[in-house]
Amino acid sequence: MFMLSFPAAAFATNCYVVATAPGQECLVVDPGIGVVDTLRSVFAEHRLRPAAVLLTHGHLDHVFSVTPVCRDAGPAYVPTFIHGDDRYRLENPVDLLSPDLKAMFIQQFGRDGWQEPADVKTIADGDSVQIAGIDLDVRHAPGHTEGSVMFGMDAIANGVPGELDRTMFSGDVLFAGSIGRTDLAGGSTEAMTDSLRDVVLPLADSTLVLPGHGPATTMKRERATNPYLQGLTQ
């Protein structure tokens, strides 16, 4: 499995590109702010053709470039997948920022040009996404936002140690040593605790965790060291 990641231009949001191999169709996970040029270079270098965009949730720092990525993919827009509870966030995520953050964002990046993706498909817990020869399962894990999800697949990137056999794109649910904040609009500490207990803890230790921010980790490491998982029982 071919996987590549790089941080966006703001908020260090991880953008992921996933394909069965170079020269094939690919999936883009969480195209944030200022990633379009880098993605174009990645597609050209590895001869990849975007087939879909997957969004772990609808915050601006994860969705800002979704429309140009979908539009640039070819003569037809490729689909964008997002949980139904976060669908409203794609109408205009800039307007959902706090007043101070909104003013700062507009000053730095401008506001003109936001366009909702043309082909948005809503997903729900337990759904499967089967595109570009890749099968992913959807796990709804609210708390950071109402519609936060994690995408899992029974594959790992080439070169990853052999004791790992599954990958989870965890968005802002689970980080290395931490979790996503719950104090933003749509967040809930209670929902996050439920998600950590019922969705995260059952993950196998052999799971590679690719978060929305920060370094990759493993479920074995997080189960043993992440303070937000300590004391939770399934």
UniProtKB/TrEMBL annotation:
<keyword id="KW-0479">Metal-binding</keyword>
<keyword id="KW-0862">Zinc</keyword>
<dbReference type="Pfam" id="PF00753">
    <property type="entry name" value="Lactamase_B"/>
</dbReference>
<dbReference type="InterPro" id="IPR036866">
    <property type="entry name" value="RibonucZ/Hydroxyglut_hydro"/>
</dbReference>
<dbReference type="InterPro" id="IPR001279">
    <property type="entry name" value="Metallo-B-lactamas"/>
</dbReference>
<keyword id="KW-0378">Hydrolase</keyword>
<dbReference type="InterPro" id="IPR051453">
    <property type="entry name" value="MBL_Glyoxalase_II"/>
</dbReference>
<protein>
    <submittedName>
        <fullName>Putative enzyme</fullName>
        <ecNumber>3.-.-.-</ecNumber>
    </submittedName>
</protein>
<dbReference type="GO" id="GO:0016787">
    <property type="term" value="F:hydrolase activity"/>
</dbReference>
<feature type="domain" description="Metallo-beta-lactamase">
    <location>
        <begin position="12"/>
        <end position="213"/>
    </location>
</feature>
<dbReference type="GO" id="GO:0046872">
    <property type="term" value="F:metal ion binding"/>
</dbReference>
<feature type="region of interest" description="Disordered">
    <location>
        <begin position="212"/>
        <end position="234"/>
    </location>
</feature>
